[in-house]
């Protein structure tokens, strides 16, 4: 078996599992964050559910460490009260990013299972642990039952051949991989990375690469353990762990041999983490700000790399550089090593540990028209603010902040680039509209909305600035208000309407609201060529009908925007009522149908 198959088999009472099997997986550690935690608690209370094992259950408050948003503060307090009553440990706002705390404190370990309301919980692949981001209902079910249903994914093997260039960082490695595979070529796969250079990667480097598996559409990116990794984990946790690697006869659906020696310094251009290019092609692009941190690049090695560039330099006039360590322990280590002094002398804003720029309202967000270079894992439009975000390594971000434009450490100019006057931009307002919830049936009819786009992410569907909303009746009005060309969707959509879109719909975050907003509007079903892995689970668990189709069928039926179509979830029969042409798409599978008929997972 592959690594993921071994872990799932060991946690489901099975001797073996294979791709496509659906099993109940026992979860070793079940976490909820501050942005999803309140909904998890609400789901438990509303459904009369109790906690299976408080010792395996934790809260991690990392999205809004300052509690600077009133609704975040209220949600955090709500979760703290629940934790007190149920003897649940809280890693509070002073602790740092939950997934990093799990690794550093032994809540996850090689061969273990871990879930969180964090879509980057698959970062656990760095230590050969099965981690998954899941929505509020999944987490609530796991807290109550101790296990969740899961479909075993097929596995892909990547062999990194050749010698790694000396100045190529882990962030460069993953951006090069994103340039090769894009956002959906590895969609739904468990990816294992092998090779001589892969084995040499430190824990921090593995975390950087594994963290961006979500951006590649992968279920998880797994590294087999190495003796050095096991020793590093022992030094942090005091625990001895057994090696985890695939069986010699493990079966992979695909294998790729990639020469790491060809990798170069990369940046992801604004809008998509997979829209990558060489730094050389965007060099001297003027920037307004920089950000170093996030679950991808907030480790001590990342801070050391930034300090090595910043020492003896100043951040360019008018440029703001923000640095946020991933955990409080790393913050203190940076203080002990003198890194904080280097940052402050260079004119850097250093903030308390947490997710920072990836969460709305926190350090690292930018304004309309602002150009930011960031070490984050996502640069979807609107994700880190209203500006434009390039993704790069800590060293490149630090060098760019000193230069005033995008560059590498070896090409920092003697004099930084200066700003010139520019025109102002205005923040647009969002129209509000509320729709009723549609009644459910296994056969539906509705008018079609054709959204011919791949990789529509959850920030486009339901932006993170609305994540504090817990009342489903309020969610519909914000549907697609961050998707260009469809900002008025919620205002025009009618109960019963059907959305037809393309590949990887729902990529990105684990937010349940990106599903519930369609239920709020009464959308009767969504058809897509494929879905983001977490989004697919969220939709099924919330009883939002989603199905997949072959694009040739839509052409065959001559479906056009506004046509009325009929969809049978049980048979998969799709009929264009305008011309009475019919064809078969992928029907509900049994588990999906059972959950749908139950009115949802809970």
Briefly, what is this?
By secondary structure, the protein is of the alpha/beta class. The protein folds into 3 domains: 3-262, Aconitase, domain 3 (2-Layer Sandwich); 266-411, 2-Layer Sandwich (Aconitase, domain 3), CATH 3.30.499; 443-597, Aconitase, domain 4. Helix 10 crosses helix 12.
Describe the 3D structure:
The chain is α/β, with parallel strands linked by helices and 602 residues long. The protein folds into three domains: 3-262, Aconitase, domain 3 (2-Layer Sandwich); 266-411, Aconitase, domain 3 (2-Layer Sandwich); 443-597, Aconitase, domain 4, CATH 3.20.19. Helix content is 28%, strand content 18%. The strands form six sheets. The chain has a seven-stranded mixed β-sheet. It has a five-stranded parallel β-sheet with strand order 4-3-2-5-6, sandwiched between helices. A five-stranded parallel β-sheet has the order 16-15-14-17-18, with helices on one face. Strand 21 (525-528), helix 17 and strand 22 (546-548) form a beta-alpha-beta unit. Helix 10 (300-310) packs across helix 12 (339-346) and helix 10 (300-310) runs parallel beside helix 13 (394-403). The model is unreliable at 425-438 (pLDDT under 50).
Quaternary structure classification = single chain
CATH superfamily of the largest domain: Aconitase, domain 3
Low-confidence stretches: 425-438
User: Which geometry do the CA atoms define?
Assistant: globular
Radius of gyration: 23 Å
CATH class of the largest domain: Alpha Beta
Q: For the residues shown, what is the average pLDDT?
A: 93
Helical coverage, percent range: 25-40%
Strand order of the largest sheet: 22-21-20-19-23-24-25
What is the CATH architecture descriptor of the largest domain?
Answer: 2-Layer Sandwich
Structural class: alpha/beta
Largest sheet: 7 strands, mixed
Number of helices: 19
């Amino acid at each position: 078996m592959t690594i993921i198959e071994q872990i799932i088999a060991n946690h489901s009472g099975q001797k073996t599992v294979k791709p496509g099997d659906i099993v109940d997986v026992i979860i070793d550690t079940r976490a909820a964050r501050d942005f999803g935690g309140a909904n998890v608690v609400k789901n438990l209370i509303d459904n009369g559910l109790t906690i299976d094992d408080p010792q395996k259950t934790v809260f991690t408050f990392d999205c809004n460490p300052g509690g600077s948003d009133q609704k975040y503060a209220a949600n955090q307090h709500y979760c703290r009260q629940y934790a007190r009553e149920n003897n649940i440990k809280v890693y509070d706002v002073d602790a740092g990013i939950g997934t990093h705390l799990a690794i550093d404190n032994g809540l996850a370990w090689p061969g273990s299972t871990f879930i969180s309301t964090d879509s980057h919980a698959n970062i656990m692949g760095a230590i050969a642990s099965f981690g998954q981001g899941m929505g509020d209902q999944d987490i609530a079910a796991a807290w109550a039952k101790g296990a969740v249903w899961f479909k075993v994914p097929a596995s892909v093997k990547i062999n990194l051949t050749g010698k790694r260039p000396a100045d190529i960082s882990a962030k460069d490695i993953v951006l090069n991989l994103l340039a090769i595979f894009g956002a959906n070529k590895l969609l739904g796969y468990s990816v294992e990375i092998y090779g001589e250079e892969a084995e040499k990667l430190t824990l921090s480097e593995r975390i950087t690469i594994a963290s961006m598996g979500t951006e590649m559409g992968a279920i998880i990116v797994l590294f087999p353990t190495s003796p050095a990794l096991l020793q590093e984990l022992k030094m942090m946790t005091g625990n001895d762990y057994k090696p985890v690697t695939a069986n010699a006869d493990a079966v992979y659906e695909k294998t790729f041999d990639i020469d790491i020696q060809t990798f170069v310094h990369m940046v992801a251009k604004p809008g998509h983490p997979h829209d990558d290019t060489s730094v050389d092609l965007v060099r001297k692009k003027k920037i307004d700000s920089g950000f170093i941190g996030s679950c991808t690049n907030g480790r001590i090695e990342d801070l050391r790399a930034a300090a090595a560039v910043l020492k003896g330099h100043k951040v360019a006039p008018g440029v703001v550089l923000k640095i946020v360590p991933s955990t409080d322990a790393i913050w203190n280590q940076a203080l002990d090593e003198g890194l904080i002094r280097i940052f402050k002398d260079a004119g850097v804003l250093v903030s308390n540990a947490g997710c920072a720029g990836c969460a709305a309202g926190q350090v690292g967000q930018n304004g309309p028209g602002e150009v930011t270079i960031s070490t984050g894992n996502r640069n979807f439009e609107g994700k880190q603010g209203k500006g434009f975000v390039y993704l790069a390594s800590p060293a490149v971000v630090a060098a760019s902040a000193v230069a005033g434009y995008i560059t590498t450490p070896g090409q920092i100019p003697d004099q930084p680039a200066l700003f010139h006057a520019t025109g102002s931009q205005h923040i647009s307002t969002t129209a509000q509209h509320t729709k009723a919830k549609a009644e459910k049936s296994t056969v539906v009819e509705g008018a079609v909305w054709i959204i011919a786009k791949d990789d529509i992410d959850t920030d486009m569907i339901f932006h993170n600035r609305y994540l504090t909303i817990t009342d489903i009746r309020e969610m519909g009005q914000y549907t697609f208000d961050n998707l260009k060309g469809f900002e008025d969707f919620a205002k025009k959509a009618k109960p019963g309407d059907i959305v037809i879109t393309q590949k990887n719909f729902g990529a990105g975050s684990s937010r349940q609201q990106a599903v519930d907003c369609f239920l709020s509007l009464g959308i009767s079903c969504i058809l897509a060529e494929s879905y983001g892995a977490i989004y697919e689970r969220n939709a099924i668990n919330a009883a939002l009908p989603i199905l997949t189709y072959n694009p040739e069928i839509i052409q065959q039926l001559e479906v056009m925007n506004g046509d009325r179509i009929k969809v049978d979830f049980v048979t998969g029969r799709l009929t264009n009522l305008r011309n009475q042409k019919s064809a078969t798409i992928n029907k509900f599978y049994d588990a999906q149908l059972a959950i749908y008929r139950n009115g949802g997972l809970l």
